[in-house]
DNA sequence: AATTTAGGCAACCGCCTGATG
DNA sequence: GCATCAGGCGGTTGCCTAAAT
């Protein structure tokens, strides 16, 4: 038995939101909150699926959303965090108040990725110069990298982080990163606003990396 | 001025995970 | 333990606009 996606239900509208729909959604959430996204459209009188409402609210209508160009600091933070976490946009967004995962993802694909490619990096998941440098400078062999993977998995298991979020590049990064790179990240640690989870990764992969 | 191309971004899709019965 | 549901996430698509020809 397969689940029918809510958006496939007949009569539900798709595509760009109108100002009127935005208004309805905002006022409904302001009044009642969004306890149940699936039930919300019906309650609010919107011909949209719950997912669509949630996305619209989170990515566009939330009052605390910061719009406009990314600052240099934000750019820098994204590059750093992507180098550590890979495409975990929501985790990266957690460290950039007011920015959404979708916005960061779009920014990455349209600006940063291109810039990195221009500078000669073409490793699929290698986001930053840092990672590129780490890979170029590494003196660790494959077995070291593999043991780093094990270390990462053990840490994740012990600390209860979601397993699906383990990103192979993280272990690779940890295994391959040079001491210079550790230093560079540490130097910038203070200038980046890190979420709780990022602090966690920072402690595991950066601080512990220096002592191993 | 008209057409084509490229860039940017909003929105959708499908999968995964955790919660619940 | 299993099935189902709802929420969340990342990948991808497609539309709109600006720039180039």
From TrEMBL:
Record keyword DNA damage present: no
GO MF entries: DNA binding
One annotated GO biological process: regulation of gene expression
A Pfam family of this chain: Myb_DNA-binding
CDD domains: SANT
InterPro entries linked: Homeodomain-like_sf, Myb_dom, Myb_TF_plants, SANT/Myb
One Gene Ontology CC term in the entry: nucleus
Subcellular location(s) per record: Nucleus
Assigned keywords, A-Z: Activator, DNA-binding, Nucleus, Repeat
Limits of the HTH myb-type domain: 9-61, 62-116
Source domain of life: Eukaryota
UniProt domain Myb-like: residue ranges: 9-61, 62-112
Record-linked PANTHER family: MYB FAMILY TRANSCRIPTION FACTOR (PTHR10641), MYB TRANSCRIPTION FACTOR (PTHR10641:SF1368)
UniProt-recorded name of the protein: Transcription factor MYB4
Organism: Glycine soja
């Amino acid at each position: 038995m397969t689940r029918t996606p809510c958006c496939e239900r007949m009569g539900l509208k798709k595509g760009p939101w109108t100002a009127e729909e935005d208004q309805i959604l905002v006022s409904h959430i302001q009044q009642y909150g969004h306890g149940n996204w699936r039930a919300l459209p019906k309650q609010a009188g919107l011909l949209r699926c719950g997912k669509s409402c949630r996305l619209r609210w989170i990515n566009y209508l939330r009052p605390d959303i910061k719009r406009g160009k990314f600052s240099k600091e934000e750019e820098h933070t994204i590059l750093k965090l992507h180098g550590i976490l890979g495409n975990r946009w929501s985790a990266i967004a957690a460290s950039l108040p007011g920015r959404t995962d979708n916005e960061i993802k779009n920014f990455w694909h349209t600006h940063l990725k291109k810039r990195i490619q221009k500078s000669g990096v073409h490793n699929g998941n290698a986001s930053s110069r840092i990672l590129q440098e780490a890979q170029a400078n590494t003196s660790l062999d494959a077995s070291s990298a593999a043991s780093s993977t094990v270390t990462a998995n053990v840490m994740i298991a012990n600390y209860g982080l979601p397993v699906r979020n383990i990103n192979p590049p993280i272990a690779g990064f940890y295994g391959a990163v040079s001491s210079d790179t550790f230093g560079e990240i540490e130097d910038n640690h203070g200038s980046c606003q890190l979420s709780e989870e990022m602090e966690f990764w920072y402690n595991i992969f950066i601080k512990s990396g220096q002592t191993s």
